[in-house]
Amino acid sequence: MPVETHAPSMSSTGSPSRPRRQRRIKKTENEDNSAQVKIEQEVGEKREALKAETGEETEAKRPKTEEADTNEYPFTPGVIERGHIYFFYRPKVQHEEVHSIDDVGKLHMLLVPSSSESLNVQGEIKQSKDVSGADAEQMNLVAQGADAAPPPESTTKDKKHFRLIIVGKKKLPDPEHERHVPIWATVIFLGDNLHDLEKKLGEKTYETKTRGTRHTPPVRLAGRGVYAIVNSQGNVPSRNATHLGYHLSHPTELGDVQKALGIHIASSFVIQVKNPKAEAPAGQRVGLPESRRAMYSEGIMKHVFGRGEKGRSSIGLRFTNCNCIELLEHEGAELLLIPARTGTEGNDQSLGNGRGEALEEVSRYESEEQVEQIFKELAFNKDQFPAEPLKGEWA
Q1: 366: closest CA among 99, 155, 94, 96?
Q2: What is the rounded radius of gyration, in angstroms, for the C-alpha atoms of the chain?
Q3: Which is nearest to 288 in space by CA: 200, 189, 190, 186?
């Protein structure tokens, strides 16, 4: 038997009209929603009244200690440290003279951070106030990067904070010839008394059971300049980066010594800090034994390396940017130095905001200093530390 069907009723415009039952259902749903909102408001008011009577804190009033704790070591964009940088090499044991890099035992990079004292760029670098055209543009670039320019180093103080770093492979990373070859480095000595540093870098004599008396000559000064460590923030956290850029004041021209050690007039490299809980991949013998590695606080391990975060290994990241300078303030801190760029323009790209120009201007002004003044900055006895390498000659 055929099934009888009914066509929907049409409105005066020719379109199907909505059934009255559907409109009634819609109206009932709106009324129910309004009633539900009213009930929730009444319940909320009663809950707040009860909390007020019992003295219970609301969620908004509770101290957000956990949230504040997560911001203890945030990635800080901009200049996180500036100061003066020195490069020393030490001859191998029992080598009184050095004729090539084959006779070099260790390469040291010394960082002497400046205080937060601001540098009057126009005054210190003796730039004229009446400038125009290219000169005005140059001065503006320097002013932009003034936060990276350290003030002059004192020659009368022997109490200064310092950080001594030993560089692997006896040479710095080379952005020109080995762009993708990182170099290991380790913070080996921290202090605030330059006489302790002088003793650390001076000559040493010691006894051994098998070889008798052994002698290690003092370090040689191979370079001096200014530096800045800058954090650059990417569009996502994984693109954040920490750069160290330097510009030499001494020497002003590179010799055989500087070229062999990978020291440029101006250069920059990326700094990454190794997680002390991360072991070397199987088959590789790199890094310090666990007993000599940096001992970071729980806050750094959790908030910088991400230990315990969801989606990461139990130890967190193997390497991280230098979120804050605190990561370098530990003996045994292991670093990866990744070549970036050379030259003033390269430093401008790495450090941003004309900071490469500012470092160049400061180093140019300080290049007039005599070698004797450099040793006074360090409170070193200049007669005990050969300085011929500043002229590019091995010693």
Answers
A1: 155
A2: 32
A3: 186
- Given a contact cutoff of 8 angstroms between Cβ atoms, the answer to whether 218 and 197 are in contact is no
Among 244, 240, 99, 227, smallest CA distance to 185 is for 244
Residue with tokens 């045994």: 332
pLDDT of residue 164: 98
| pTM for this entry | 0.78
- Distance CA(76)–CA(259), nearest Å, equals 34
Tokens 């302790």 appear where? 196
- Give 251-270 pLDDT, tens digit per residue: 999 999 999 999 999 999 99
DSSP 92: P
CA distances from 171 to 108, 184, 244 (A): 9, 10, 16
pLDDT tens track for 90-108: 999 999 899 999 999 999 9
Which of 153, 338, 320 lies closest to 244, judged by CA?
Answer: 338
DSSP E strands: which ranges in 42-125? 78-91, 104-113
What are the helix and strand counts (H, E) for the chain?
10, 11
User: Cα–Cα–Cα angle for 211, 215, 218, nearest 5°?
Assistant: 155
Q: How far is CA 280 from CA 121, 284, 317, in A?
A: 45, 6, 13
The residue length of the chain stands at 395
For residue 199, give Cα distances in angstroms to 189, 191, 203, 218.
12, 12, 8, 9
Give the span between the Cα atoms of 19 and 330, in whole angstroms.
Answer: 78
User: What letter represents residue 162's amino acid?
Assistant: F
Please report where in the chains the tokens 């530990």 appear, as a residue.
330
Closest by CA position to 230, among listed 118, 295, 297, 147:
147
Cβ-based neighbours of 80, under 8 Å, separated by 6 or more: 229, 230, 231, 242, 322, 324, 325
DSSP string, 299-366: HHHHHTS-TT-TTS-TT--SEE--SSGGGGSSTT-EEEEEEEEEHHHHHHHHH-TTHHHHHHHHHHHH
Tokens of 308: 């315990």
User: At a CB cut-off of 8 Å and minimum separation 6, what does 305 contact?
Assistant: 275, 277, 296, 315, 316, 317, 320
Residue 107 structure tokens: 């390469």
